[in-house]
Amino acid sequence: MTYQQLSWQTVLDILVISAGLFFLYRTLLRLGTWKIVSGILVAALFFVVASLLDLKGVEWVYRNVSHVAVISLIVLFQPELRKMFERAASIRKKIDKPQDPGFFKLIAESLVRMAESGTGAIIVFPGRENIAQWVSAGFRLEAQPSLPLILSIFDHHSPGHDGALIVKNGRLDALGVRLPVSQNERLSSDYGTRHHAAMGLSEKSDALVAVVSEERHQVAMFKNGQMTPLKTQTDIVAAIQNHYRAEGIFKQFLSTKGSFRTIGLEIASSVAVAVVLWVTIISGQGEMIEKVISVPVEYTATAENVVMTGEKAKEARLHLSGSRSDLADLSPSTMGVKIDLAKMAAGKQTVFISQDNLRLPKGVRLLDVDPASIEVNISKLSRILLPVKPQLVGSIPDGLRMTAARVVPESLLVFVPSGDAEKSYKNITTTPVYLDNIRENTMVYCKVVAPQSVQPVDKRWPDVEIQVMVEAKSVK
Ligand SMILES: Nc1ncnc2c1ncn2[C@@H]1O[C@H](COP(=O)(O)OP(=O)(O)OP(=O)(O)O)[C@@H](O)[C@H]1O
């Protein structure tokens, strides 16, 4: 990248790519998919190095495999992509906040009390996203929260203590709800299914899940696939209040734990990777280059009463300029020079080849063309009757002689260019008839063979019948 190339668009381009890389990394880190991502990053790095070293073979493999790889990645990351889109769709949705200011203290106190007494519990506080698709079973409660009610729900003598309690709009909405268990290795196997279930829902949605550990006598909060053990009631109140605060898209993405130093380092790395990508691949693809290619010249049909005569140019060499990626994708067969004969009147015409009669892709410019113009001879047509002359090849076998070669029809009505050339058309011929194998009177069907400038009046050439009559040579 030279200084001249450093426009505001380039800077914006790099910043957008950096932001994309950073958010992608953060999202995948939160979802615990970073192992796959690091594999992809190593592959990408390998490609960048190969590109810098100009290793054509490796580049070729990457270019050809990349389309399949993109589809595979979409399939592989389908759950993550779905989650990203769902998250984006629910960004504007309002969160169902509890209205009672005493709610937070009440919940925190219940959690602390249960931790002290060693009562296992899971309480779910949904965020903006609908969690219905992830949870199952459970019983509708719709009750006003109170300390005795929460404690009795999770009392292990109570039949409804198994499963999670869902809190919506500051009310106890349902109990005994089953959550999706996390398949991630992020949470140590020292934790049991309660913790893995809380982790599972926090990975799949933006819900906050509070867990009280029966064994550890400890409260932990799960949000965005991260577990945070909390010691005091004040910390628990703060965590729940924080969850209900309107979170902007940036905060959601930054919500994975990390110090300012780590986040700063990640942002700097994203910018660095974006710059390397831009310099090695993107700017390379956008670099303007020139290319010379040969393309076919195509002619449309003429008007009814005229015909094109004389030599026809078949190919033109185009000198083009465009970005490396645009020129690499050019296919000469689909971008020929098109000469429109439909509206041309009789006479000699010169058609200049320009961008207008070429089907060039957007962004590709025509610098020069050889030939610069094409001579087109358009002649009026005359209607004449031309005899059909059979094309007889070889000779009749020994002992036989040909007495006649009749053609049906004997002549055909044709259009020929009028003027001086008109008289040069003496006849039209047929596809060959090989005489060497003819031992008796034979009839064969042949096609008409005529120059391009001779056209049948009836639009299509009829098949012609050739009768070859033979007889035995008389021995003298
Ligand atoms: N998918 C689930 N959804 C909701 N709750 C679940 C789910 N799986 C297990 N639980 C709850 O977790 C309890 C079992 O907890 P377990 O002891 O296996 O987990 P743990 O993480 O070790 O928790 P603790 O530290 O409290 O022992 C079950 O009785 C049930 O109440």
UniProtKB/TrEMBL annotation:
PROSITE patterns: DAC. It comes from the Bacteria. Keywords: ATP-binding, Membrane, Nucleotide-binding, Nucleotidyltransferase, Transferase, Transmembrane, Transmembrane helix. It catalyses: 2 ATP = 3',3'-c-di-AMP + 2 diphosphate. The chain crosses the membrane at residues 6-24, 36-54, 60-77, 263-281. One of its GO terms (molecular function) is adenylate cyclase activity. Residues 78-233 form the DAC domain. InterPro entries: CdaA_N (IPR045585), DisA (IPR050338), DNA_integrity_DisA_N_sf (IPR036888), DNA_integrity_scan_DisA_N (IPR003390). Pfam families: CdaA_N (PF19293), DAC (PF02457). This is DAC domain-containing protein.
